[in-house]
Amino acid sequence: MAASISLSLSLSPASTPRSGPAAARLGAAFRSSSLSFCGLRREVLSLRSVGSADSRRMIADLARHRAAKIVAAAENNGKPAKFDYDLIIIGAGVGGHGAALHAVEKGLKTAIIEGDIVGGTCVNRGCVPSKALLAVSGRMREFQDEHHLKALGLQVASPGYDRQSVADHANNLASKIRSNLTNSLKSLGVDILTGFGTIVGTQKVKYGKVGFPDTEVTAENIIIATGSVPFVPKGIEIDGKTVFTSDHALKLEWVPDWIAIVGSGYIGLEFSDVYTALGSEVTFVEALDQLMPGFDPEISKLAQRVLINPRKIDYHTGVFATKITPAKDGKPVLIELIDAKTKEPKDTLEVDAAMIATGRAPFTKGLGLENINVATVRGFVPVDEHMQVTDADGNLVPHLFCIGDANGKLMLAHAASAQGISVVEQICGNDNVLNHLSIPAACFTHPEISMVGLTEPQAREKAENGGFPISVAKTSFKANTKALAENEGEGIAKLIYRPDTGEILGVHIIGLHAADLIHEASNAIALGTRLQDIKFAVHAHPTLSEVLDELFKSAKVNSGVMSSVNEPVAV
Amino acid sequence: MAASPSISTPFVSRSLLSSSTVSRPQILLLPRARSGRQAARIAPISAKIREIFMPALSSTMTEGKIVSWIKSEGDRLSKGESVVVVESDKADMDVETFYDGILAAIVVPAGESAPVGAPIGLLAESEEEVALAKAQAHSQSQSQPQPQAHSPLPVSPPSPPASAAVTTPLAVSEVPRKTVATPYAKKIAKQYKVDIGSVTGTGPYGRITPSDIETAAGIQPKKPASSPAALPVPQVPSPSAGATPKAPTAVLPPIPGSTVVPFTTMQVAVSKNMVESLSVPTFRVGYPVTTNALDSLYEKLKPKGVTMTVLLAKAAAMALVKHPVVNATCKDGKSFTYNENINIAVAVAIDGGLITPVLQDADKLDIYLLCERWKELLKKARGKQLQPNEYSSGTFTVSNLGMFGVDRFDAILPPGQGAIMAVGASKPTVVADADGFFSVKSKMLVNVTADHRIIYGADLAAFLQTFAKIVEDPEILTR
Q1: pLDDT tens digits for range A22-48
Q2: What's the farthest any 2 CA atoms get from each other in chain B?
Q3: Cβ distance of A314 and B205 shorter than 8 Å
Q4: For residue B232, how many other CB atoms are within 10 A of its CB?
Q5: Interface contact flag, A330 B183, Cβ < 8 Å
Q6: Which residue of chain B comes nearest to A332, CA vs CA?
Q7: Can you give the pTM of this predicted structure?
Q8: B452 in catalytic set
Q9: d(CA A419, CA B80)
Q10: ipTM for the complex shown
């Protein structure tokens, strides 16, 4: 590390005042036990793994790069800017964390403002604790599936669970991940400023108690990463006990005999998996005509066959829940349904509990956006493709970016993180546009569902507009040795691609460990790998990854023409 | 609902258990504190006559026996009062009512059993309904001459009187209520082709539950095969007397003049466990232990409330610390399951049965605490109030017949444990030492039965050696 500092010092005298600490922070990055959560990037770790000589050289390279950038920045401004920080991130969720990590790696002096607890929704009230509950539900399912156990020759006597211990598991996991996250920020030298951040002007942020921001800090660039909160439609009364959102449900304070889940997206679906495994009966209320509206139709059809029909679940589609009254005075929870199209009253449900999973609303109030002439759109902060904020007149706001759920482009933890990294690249002078079609998504039901890129209807529409052909290939888990060994042959993988170029447009998987399998496809899309190339990649046998191997191989690319036209691929 | 109330008799002779179409208001009872577990479901149906039915006192309970009715027919009940005592596997529980009313009829008298969910009594709202309820109970008992144990839920109702109008809701002239059925209930209704509109819900808020559909479809709710006693046994006369007479048990029916007394629930459990134990390959190792030191320690500690049983349990626990395999269990025939805690079950004979209260963490608690714990357990055992974890969490059992003068015996290994120790009486014995000097020492024979799949001869020998050392130098027990 000492070597790296002296190197960087010698590189560019002009940048001496700032490159010194920058390199030191860089060193910190290398020392830290950087952990990766919810799709956080782990490149710091990957650098660590190279040999010491190599790593020194790489640090030198990085330092040189950094120095060059500073010179460029200085030239642009005429004089070096005087700011408290190079970058301030408002919101220490997964997006803010990802951005901070990358900013430190790039040598930026970074602060992160958090008014609640580090980790945001994902770690505290979302992906992380729900995975703990789903881990329990997956095992319960295995133990309860007599047919399946028998086929494997297993005998399990009356499986049961202790609700409190299950809830503790979820809670413990969240606090563990939270402290890991906090430690990683601290060890990298990111300043964690406690309070709610408000933008008071260009490159200026105040933070402190809600409504009383008292400390002002300045930064060359600001990233808004304030995330989202559960969206509760009008007329629904949340009491946190019998009518609640995922925030409460994750605490698993009780397991109702019968619960209605309003919204059949991935949050609703995951909770239906948890609740039915723990003995509840579930009723879905979905405004659209079909359950699981976001998924590829073929996948949602199979999902319905595997995840809904055989379970203690029924559903009402094409209806809005206009009024939900919590259980009180000896009455159950009442849900009034109206037809989504005619608005006529349709039905009333009486259940023990209702969970609202109708999506998430951006958390952007009190950000002081009015101070810089930015108007939110349904609460979302408008941004361009570089995540740079646009103001009410459609002009770009300099030095201000917004990532994650707050901009609403793709409300996934790892998308926020990827956007944050993209913004940091942009700040450092590398033009970077994140390809959102390469961001995978997963639903952790049993079996899991995962997807990347376009659904078939989306791809067909695009193909029609763009005047190119598309094809679809499918493989089944039933043909996969490993899946059969696990006696979990239920599932398919589906590939949507261009037969003329071999470009992958979308991949959708439902089946055992689908969430882990999708990355081969998302990497291929991100790197622009073509089917005619990826199909030669070798997969270990017998593994579930062969489902994708089969899928790529079964694609019929018009290769005779293509091999000559093949574009160079950056790998 | 078919609404043609042409029939004049409001109550048809029809089994209450088979309510495929008859409106069946029910009352659910809440078992009270005697043994913790509560079947908290509510059935707020505004009917005038409610059925009191057998509550599920535990997740495994399929059938319960009425120990006694605290209230008698004609008694006025108020919400929250205890009505009946029900015997489950190993504990008796008071069961209280959710509703005010008059106990109009007792359908299942004391001493008899009924499956979970079967009506055991009728609760009338007012004096007027008492007669009706009695008639209902009468028809019920007529259509059900056999004791429960021999006739599981009748699948089809006895042929109703001529008119088909029996589907009219009886006694309940309520405003027609919206039918609420749970998702799974709807699913199986389709599967079994049950018209959901014709089913009366017994679940929370009167909703139709999967088991209502199963009942309506004439399917016995899933439960393990009912307990033994499959022989056609003539019912003991005057069942309302309650207590079954303690008569010598006959072995085989052909012997003239024999009396058959069915097992109590506890005896059924013992019987089941004993038969199960036959599937475990056990062996036995005996060991003589000199108890002079232990006896004098006992004399010293007796004023402080220390008993020999607890001393022995403690000694066993301390020996087990050094031989964890003896504290292990073989669950699947393929692996050792090492138990983290050392919980010593001690066999106790109680009136009409046998129970094994457990001294949990006997190795860790000091002897005085253990003795206090033991006294509590004994008290609860006598009152049949032990919680399941207080009699089923043992990892090693001690059985002592020494106080009866038994010098040695061998015990049957209880399912789920690796070893059991049978302790005989301590007797003065002439012993010769290595130099040929004779002396008289108190010797006690202990005999351990163990599961040879996980515990081998040498293991037991080593364990017994440790045990003997502790007993022969027992000061360590008080530390």
Answers
A1: 444 444 444 444 444 444 444 444 444
A2: 103
A3: no
A4: 8
A5: no
A6: B205
A7: 0.55
A8: yes
A9: 61
A10: 0.73
